Amino acid sequence: MLELKNICKTFNAGTINEKVVFDGLNLTLNDGDFVTVIGGNGAGKSTMLNAIAGVWPLDDGQVLIDGHDITKLPEHKRAKFIGRVFQDPRMGTAPDMWVEENMSIADSRGLRRGLAWAISARDRERYKKLLSQLDLGLETRLTSKVGLLSGGQRQAVTLLMAAMNDPKLLLLDEHTAALDPKTAAKVLEITDKIVTENNLTTLMITHNMNDAIKHGNRLIMMNNGKIVYDVAGEEKKNLTVDFLIKKFSETGDTLSDKALLS
User: Fold this and answer.
1) Residue 139, pLDDT above cutoff 60
2) Burial zone of 249 (CB within 10 Å; 0-12 exposed, 13-18 middle, 19+ buried)
3) How confident is the prediction for the chain on average, in pLDDT?
4) Which residue in 217, 222, 210, 215 sits closest to 247, CA to CA?
């Protein structure tokens, strides 16, 4: 479902601030893979997601989704294939628009816009049904401004929006990092449900070692723009936090306080 082929990216090339981020990075995700991504600060985790989403052009290499080469597609055209949730709950929604208006925008992602009413009675019923699955009482707040929701509620709505219309790939960039532990656990529970029910191919960056082990069917560790550890299936299920910390030390990487405290 996703292929990164020898991707290369250098920022500020030829200057004193030159930074080689990727020098031939390769990664393949099968259809339905749920991959958790861990690594120290500057390992290249979020930069990899930006490369997939088309935030900036690659120097070399290819990005393929479902066999289609999207390397040259701009970010807004990749939105047809990709759903994304950011660390900051404020980034995935329009705060001054209603919940149903935000969902309508997500619902029409990648489609041609016509002159019909943006939200029909049929749409409203579908949005209510989707929101009721979150078990947060949001199905009764369709006309509430998203900016009035709590961080957890807002992130749950953003996650639901990102998964609408079955994207080929779901990118989760530390989407629970800004939430308190109880709310983060709820959002991760919703994440598992949405990913499983829709069989979504997913990349989830996290600093929480326990979450990286508990969620998904595969785990990769990054260091200096390279994948230094890749584990799946039963072997992943049997991982421990102590083992992952040891793996980090073997790479010479330094864990953040956030990762250690988690």
Assistant:
1) yes
2) exposed
3) 87
4) 222
Residue tagged 């996290």 (tokens): 206
Find all residues with CB under 8 Å of 261, minimum gap 6, and list them: none
CA atoms of 173 and 207, how far apart (whole Å)? 10
Q: Are 194 and 155 in contact (CB under 8 A)?
A: no
* Owner of token pair 């800004």: 178
Per DSSP, the residues of the chain read -EEEEEEEEEESTTSTT-EEEEEEEEEEE-TT-EEEEEE-TTSSHHHHHHHHHTSS--SEEEEEETTEE-TTS-HHHHTTTEEEE-SSTTSSS-TTSBHHHHHHHHHTTTS---SS-SS-HHHHHHHHHHHHTTTSSGGG-TTSBGGGS-HHHHHHHHHHHHTTT--SEEEEESTTTTS-HHHHHHHHHHHHHHHHHHT-EEEEE-S-HHHHHHSSSEEEEEETTEEEEEEEHHHHHT--HHHHHHHHHHHT----HHHHH-
What pLDDT score does 108 carry?
77
Task: Tell me the CA distances in angstroms from 74 to 10, 58, 80, 142, 227, one per residue in order.
Answer: 19, 11, 11, 32, 26
Q: What is the pLDDT of residues 173-223, one digit of tens each?
A: 999 888 888 888 888 988 998 899 889 999 999 989 999 999 999 999 999
Tell me the pTM: 0.88
Task: Let me know how long the chain is.
Answer: 262
Using the CB atoms, write b or e for 170-180: b if 16+ within 10 Å. Answer: bbbbbbbbbbe
User: Whole-angstrom Cα distance, residue 101 to residue 88?
Assistant: 20
> b vs e for 139-149, b when ≥16 Cβ sit within 10 Å of the residue's Cβ?
bebbeebbeeb
